[in-house]
Queue: 2 jobs
Job 1
Amino acid sequence: MTTDLRENRLKARIKDIADFYHHKGRMPSFSEIGEMAGIKSKNAVYKLVNKLEKLKVLERDDRGRLIPGSIASSVKILGTVEAGFPSPAEEELSDALSLDDLLVKNPQATFLLKVSGYSMSEAGILPGDMVLVDKGQSPKSGDIVIAEVDGEWTMKYLDKGKEGVTLIPANPKFKPIKPQKELKIAGVVTAVVRKYK
Amino acid sequence: MTQPLTISSWPQAILHLDADAFFASCEQAVHPELKGKPVITGKERGIVSAASYEAKARGVKRAMRLFEVKKVCPDAVIVPSDYETYSLFSVRMFEILRRFSPDVEEYSIDEAFVDITGLRRSFHTSYGTIAKRMQEEVEKELGITVSIGVSLTKVLAKIGSKHKKPNGLTLISGRDIHLYLKTLPVEKIWGIGPNTSAFLGKFGIKTALEFALKDEGFVKKHLSKPYQEIWHELNGRSIYPVVCESKSSYQSISKAKTFTPPSRDKEFIFAQLSKNLENACIKARRYKLAAARLIVFLRTQDFRDSGIEVKLNRPTAYPAYLFQALKEGFNNAFEPANLYRQTGVVLSGLVPDAEIQYALFDDNSKIEKMANIYTTIDLLSEKFGKYTVHHAASLASKVQAQHEGARGDVPQRVAELFKGENKRQHLGLPVLHIKV
């Protein structure tokens, strides 16, 4: 248990030093290491540095200055490579896209909305579904938009035709809407999420 | 020195952004039907946390009690605070600012300083236009308005953002500084309090300009360093840098919660206190801090406070070690005759937990065991939501609702969950409450 704690602490310190190096482009001084690690005594920092040198985390040049060791490698280290069958999994996964990345293109401008009506049911959007709405995009013809028409909110296809803008439902039971006075578009629907279980 | 406040170039360009009636604006952004209406947040507290500009125009002020609000503005829409949504908006606002400059200081939930020095070249436009674009992007993507001041220093930028609100944009260039300081009372300057302004009044200094025009000898002789710095900043010489690291250190951590109806049930009130303590400790542990002092306070129905400060023999962030102190403080402050409405704790004297000195007779193995217990609790919270495991002393605060009656309304975000969300864990995106 104690060794666990110690090991974690050492790992955290190595990470701090590595972050410092990648951030500032230089190695920290002894007093900066002390500050990051919460060690006041110079001697204790010296001991820590010796330990890290043994672990090849950092090295010292001939004048005693710190130079980065293993923390400097900007080349991505693959998993241990064994002779025989290659295991492509790790290399393949390094570029994996999360569902978040896939669904949320502009994270600052994307909002959730719970659907309550049937007007877009033929487009596969049903009551209870969650749609993602991007407020940052400029709406184009054919986009599904959330819009306020003459004081009423609705979700429809946007159609910018020659004789003005029309909002078209996907469900034939609903009628297309032509804004009489005012049309405000709150955002463009970029995805629909339906969770079954 | 007839007109000393004249600097013709922009050695620095500091921008201060202040969101307009932030909490109320967030509510209007996710509830579009509230746009243009007087909106007030803070229903669960019984007092105004934030009021929209429509409500302010009707005479609603911050911290006003809600029954008074109903008198001056009967059609006000009063909603419970939805801090989760406000935090999401805040984070997004700062991210939008970072599209323009990496030097963004998150000054508070709704305020930021941005250093935009030198960006005219990369954006091929003036500082004023950069600020305008920021304002427009925030409004387009978040649906809230912000007021911006741009000037040579933080103090001047802050004067700018206050100059015109809401949705204001004020550029105070070096040659115009005196115009903005001329009518500004000295106590309206950022960092100058009532005492200092009264002191300056003794020398006949009433406006910011009169202060800025004093010579350095006067300032050095009569004022301490912080005010000398403000004096430099007013003169367009930047002293305060924009600090862009995210907040990682705290002077103190406080947690306080109101409950309704008010109670005199000793066990329930202590449970409230205990929950606040657990909360404060969770935050302290998150920032790897430990507290050397604990302040316990109780607030009665008629807003009288009683508080006790307890010193600890060793800094800690583990509630188990703090209960003794909490109990003592509570027993000292609690009077059975009183009706209480709020409890709170403050952890102060914070030190990094790596620096704790153990006392000679501390049982180290026991302390390590405790560390393991709380590390596990924190892991469980991360996985299953906060309060998955909590102290039995807090139980009474869990079985009884925090607010009964109308104040018990929870934000719509919490009341209407998506499949897969639970009471504590929600998707990290704000929800538009529009019926379509």
Note: Chain A touches chain B through 34 residues (CB under 8 Å).
Job 2
Amino acid sequence: MMPPITILFHNARLIDPEAGTDEIGSLLIRDGRILARSEVGPDVGPESGGSHDALLRAHALSPSDVEMIDCAGKCLAPGIVDIGVKVCEPGERHKESYKSAGLAAAAGGVTTIVTRPDTTPTIDSPETLEFVTRRAQADAPVNVLPMAALTKAREGREMTEIGFLMDAGAVAFTDCDHVIRDTKVFSRALTYARSCGALVMAHPQEPILSGGAAATSGKFAALRGLPAVSPMAERMGLDRDIALLEMTGARYHADQITTARALPALERAKNNGLDITAGTSIHHLTLNELDVADYRTFFKVKPPLRSEDDRLAVIEAVRVGLIDVISSMHTPQDEESKRLPFEEAAAGAVALETLLPAAMRLYHAGLLDLPTLFRAMALNPARRLGLASGRLAVGAPADLVLFDPDVPVVMDRFQLQSKSKNTPFDTQRMQGRVLATYVAGQTVYRRDA
Amino acid sequence: MQPPSFDHPHLLGIEPLRPHEITAILDLADDYVVLNRQTKKHSDALAGLTQINMFFENSTRTQASFELAGKRLGADVMNMAMQASSIKKGETLIDTAMTLNAMHPDLLVVRHPHSGAVDLLAQKVNCAVLNAGDGRHEHPTQALLDALTIRRTKGRLHRLNIAICGDIAHSRVARSNLILLGKMENRIRLIGPPTLVPQQFSEFGAEIYDDMREGLKGVDVVMMLRLQKERMDGGFIPSEREYFYRYGLDAEKLALAKPDAIVMHPGPMNRGVEIDGTIADDIKRSVIQEQVEMGVAVRMAAMDLLARNLRTARTGGA
């Protein structure tokens, strides 16, 4: 029998989203869980290493029993829990497989991917869900938790077998970017989901108003002559969904809130005690509509990039905790789907590997500190899904990311592990790089120095 | 040698042009107007060059104008009716560009139903590209021919009050004109029902009117836009007759403009929808025929300038 793996990370900058702290300390992990941690007091220099000896003694361990990792003052944080990752199995494995998505996640410090059901065919039956789970277990080095469709084929007509799908492992139910137009169907699905205790994730958007849009209405879209949607469509979609939550009491997560206008409605719904959380995408936090420039299709995402005012309002909402979750909204697209006129091009961007360096832009800009970022990228999504991960607490799974928040990087899309290379950050200067990723104490990624 | 007055490889829109470059095109176009009025209307400016007209959207007038312009300058002109051919077979725009590269064209004239499609094509081909209209984005030669028409009838292209009326939202002509006339320092009014006039255009410095009578007061130039048939029924406006009553240009509304105001229309016109037939035919007010004439001259000038740059790039750049 293998001896239990025991690792001591010392001289690490521990990012604890639960306590809201960012301090030098040590973390001891064993059997895939966090066994103990200690902080170095302000008067003890990290070089002294003082506290981790005490940590070992307290658990009757000698340095020879333990793999010692000197983190050299780099950040150690809970691994990212990414809700809404598209893996293109079944159907479009050439865009992304469980293997490539798993490698990309590991390289990006993402220890849990929560996958979307908008595949071909849709993951809407226990049988397709089992296929996906089997593929994920065989190929992906990180945790994979599947979501299933809320309605069959995401057509918004008949609800899926929510109970069976939960038994098969579905952690949430969503029709992804297909908004259920029929309010009666949606209200029944929410009511039924509530009885099962299922979490429903929706894309708040007034579907008719936003139909055919490739950009957000405003000066930029007017100048470029792109079909555009008012940012108000998001608020209208959210308002409807909130009314349905008041009716049904369902557990609800809005996948992406990207506009200032939607935020007061979200705040009221939370204050009224509805079981509602909201996410946003890293692209909407770090890019705005002007980045599309000369019809660059790698910047076409759904919903479309917003104004700078919206971007700043959404960052502030993340800071104060009104928006709970930051996701990559990883959406692989091949070159053929992107090398088209902007209106015809497919929406979406790969982001598992760029999520962390993009988030570091917010950190270096002084907009969000590291505990706040990991609250939105790890703690809150884990809590919403009822997972024990996302924390640096004793007893929590040792799903960890070790990263350097400062190192400059020029993003090269052809270096990505994802099969699809559609990142808007290609050739951009960024800061931050994952050094190692651990899932249940096992090293799933280590960057060669 | 004069410094290059127009140093762009393509003509994709008015937006990248500087005022002196616009003037350079118009000056050269004036020369071509003279040539076009002679019995022998031929130059060798484009001799030996191949011009391909690729229209992914139906057009008779613009395509004919570009074809004539190319032929008068001695180019070998080929028309490809793209809506009938390969896109129906699933070929992408990039594939089309690759196919074209193999034919070694020198000038490519492109119209496409999607905004930005001509920019995309220009990135992938090895020749000069002229945008003959992309989606709702730009139609630069139309704005240039309108500018030339205004300059020749008004004697200047600055400090004029210009009204652009009708379906601004779906019009690439309106966008290019708005940009060009703004760059040349004119006051621009956009007139139309709010469903067809994006209010964001006020951020470009235009004044927006939904009362046409108010908007036409004291203007020097009235530019009418074509109302597309598919917008007429209930979607954007209640009916043709209500539109004509409120936004159609008739003698009564035109009387509010300056006495010497000119009337323009990019064609083809819907008589009795956006413009009263008698106004369109009034040779004292309407310059619609001149616009067509200026169209050929402006396209000759634009292609001539692009061809000069192409030759410089191919010989001098090496």
Note: Strands of chain B lie at 50-55, 76-81, 107-112, 128-134, 161-165, 187-191, 207-209, 221-224, 262-264.
